[in-house]
Design brief:
Largest sheet: 6 strands, mixed
Number of strands: 16
Structural class: alpha/beta
Radius of gyration: 22 Å
Strand order of the largest sheet: 9-8-7-6-3-16
Number of domains: 2
Strand content: 5-15%
Distance between the termini: 42 Å
Shape: globular
Helix content: 25-40%
């Protein structure tokens, strides 16, 4: 799954002495895209349909899909370009390596990086660059505040135990908090592994990160509650119980945990330097949804956490987040990115508000017996998401059969 040269220089160094063009080049040398030879990841190949193909009132509109395995999916299904506009997804701070993608999810709008990319890769210069990531494609009504008795988790961290997550820095910030502010706060860590039962089955990499945490705080369990593996349908309850969600990374993709936290109305804390090289003028989260630590060292993170804990009522994370995020905004941003194609085809196309388009709603209903809103929010999951080669085959075959049928009868 990981390919290329991992950007170790930037994991814990917010001020590398390199020109920006070299930093972008270094980040571009790494991707998390999936390829055919990675048989162990075949069950993980995703096929996300943002808009299905449509035949309505004598018009044919291609749909939009995105995938982390774009070239592989096209290799398996050569007729996809008849049905869809293909959007590549790297799940990292780089732009997709895919040769088949017509457009790319690029996390943030960064005009300077985009200009560099088009000069560095002239063969890809005509690609549409969409300032979204797969983590933006989140159902804000499913990941939403849950009724809890109280916010009984001081600091929640949802993170794998990888080096770039800087968990030892976060753990040390908790230790410093007790010393500096004389309050015994704890951190709850959800790693995706069942560490609550012990550390016997952790990988060497995870063991190394645990050793670094131990070096930072001596006895991790004095400061950290290692949560059991949490199923996705329960994760919103954890966010709802938390007073603040903290991210220690400096460089990665567009982090899912902080978005889920904001959607659950929980403020977030990150370092100011988080993804600084690829964000341009975009913030790492909306104003009013959290706070940033100015410098990359534990005490700065301690102070940011303290500020949030002392000023809980001043933050309105879900309200601010939903102004520009959630599935509605993902849908609108995607279609706006192809307005030169969809604008002439969809009557009364209104940039920024395509989800309210009556003609599009009628077209979805006629073709798939769903409202446009129901499609966007996965009421028929078979149509909007397939995972694994067999499931993708069935979904693509279904759409192809619809194409062949309507082409034959001139629907």
């Amino acid at each position: 799954m990981p390919k290329g040269n991992y950007p170790y220089d930037y994991i814990s160094n917010p001020n590398p002495s390199k020109p920006m063009e070299q930093i972008w080049s270094d980040l571009q040398e790494y991707t998390l895209e999936l390829y055919p030879e990675e048989v162990e990841y075949h069950p993980s190949v995703d096929f996300w349909v943002v808009l299905p193909p449509l035949w309505f009132e004598g018009k044919f509109l291609k749909g939009i899909f995105f995938s982390q395995a774009m070239d592989f999916v096209h290799e398996l299904h050569p007729r996809l370009s008849e049905l869809f506009i293909s959007v590549g997804n790297t799940m990292w701070s780089s732009y997709p390596w895919s040769t088949k993608a017509e457009a790319c999810l690029v996390s943030y709008r960064c005009p300077e990086m985009e200009e560099w990319y088009k000069k560095a890769y002239p063969e890809r210069s005509d690609r549409v660059l969409i300032p979204l990531q797969n983590s933006d494609y989140m159902d804000e009504y499913y990941i939403a505040p849950k009724p809890v008795a109280e916010r009984d988790i001081d600091v929640l961290v949802v993170s794998s135990m990888y080096e770039f997550k800087n968990l030892p820095v976060v753990a040390e910030a908790i230790k410093i908090y007790r010393e500096k502010y004389s309050k015994r706060i704890r951190m709850t860590l959800i790693t995706g592994k069942d560490f609550e039962k012990g550390f016997e089955k952790i990988t060497p990499q995870e063991a190394y990160e645990l050793e670094k945490i131990e070096a930072a705080v001596k006895r991790p369990k004095d400061y950290i509650d290692f949560a059991p593996k949490v199923p996705y349908f329960s994760i919103a309850e954890y966010y709802s119980r938390a007073k603040v969600v903290v991210l220690g990374s400096l460089v990665e993709g567009k982090n899912r945990a902080i978005q889920e936290a904001m959607s659950c109305d929980t403020p977030v804390v990150t370092f100011q330097a988080f993804n600084q090289f690829i964000r341009g003028n975009d913030p790492s989260f909306p104003e009013g949804a959290g706070w940033t630590a100015e410098d990359f060292y534990p005490e700065s993170l301690t102070d940011a956490i303290h500020f949030v804990l002392k000023n809980q009522g001043d933050f309105h994370p879900r309200r601010e987040y939903l102004k520009t995020n959630g599935k509605k905004n993902f849908f609108n941003t995607c279609l706006n990115s192809f307005k030169d194609y969809y604008g002439p085809l969809i009557p009364d196309f209104q940039e920024g508000n395509v989800l309210q388009n009556l003609w599009l709603d009628l077209a979805i209903q006629k073709n798939y017996q769903l409202s446009l809103m129901d499609f966007v929010y996965d009421k028929n999951f078979f149509l909007s998401h397939a995972q694994g080669l067999e499931a993708i085959q069935k979904t693509v075959d279904f759409y192809l059969s619809r194409l062949d049928y309507f082409s034959k009868y001139k629907y």
